[in-house]
Amino acid sequence: DQQVKQNSPSLSVQEGRISILNCDYTNSMFDYFLWYKKYPAEGPTFLISISSIKDKNEDGRFTVFLNKSAKHLSLHIVPSQPGDSAVYFCAPRAKYSGGGADGLTFGKGTHLIIQP
Amino acid sequence: EPEVTQTPSHQVTQMGQEVILRCVPISNHLYFYWYRQILGQKVEFLVSFYNNEISEKSEIFDDQFSVERPDGSNFTLKIRSTKLEDSAMYFCASSLQGRSNQPQHFGDGTRLSIL
After folding, report:
1. Chain A residues within an 8 Å CB radius of B31
2. What is the pLDDT of residue B115?
3. Does A99 contact B108 at a Cβ distance shorter than 8 Å?
């Protein structure tokens, strides 16, 4: 099952610079894309999301870009701070028409390391 | 800020034994989920639960697994006869609504070790 690919297992960025984390997907039914951050010994924490009808969503230092034709999204963090060191997961969701809810499909994650 | 709490943080169990993992979702949330992460692998969806019944379940969630909301606050995952390959971090999550734009809020997980 490779619906979501995060091809960089790790990324090292200097403090103050821009961090760019990438995610590719194959399922054209995905209509929302969520990013989660995870510290060791903690659960994933929701960071930012984007709807498939948009190509950009910004929240403070975090911006997510979506290229639907390429089935690619990226998370930009600028400026990067030491507290941003964590594993970042891309988690798309398909439109759900049932009465309940379906689960998230996580990528393998990218370990971001911010160097002082 | 309200949070999802999970107990215990670490559970060690003999193979073949039953185990119950417990979760207290955020109080006004209506949708509940279990995920697991085997060491070095992806976080994988197990099951979602709404209105006292399972909404969706993955292939992983076989007859050995069951979920229950025994009262107004707890949400449990039971593994009937544990296997070595059940060793993983188990995360509980909850959301206010089930729509695709609603983020799920995760607990810090229970590390399950099967001996």
Report:
1. 100-101
2. 95
3. no
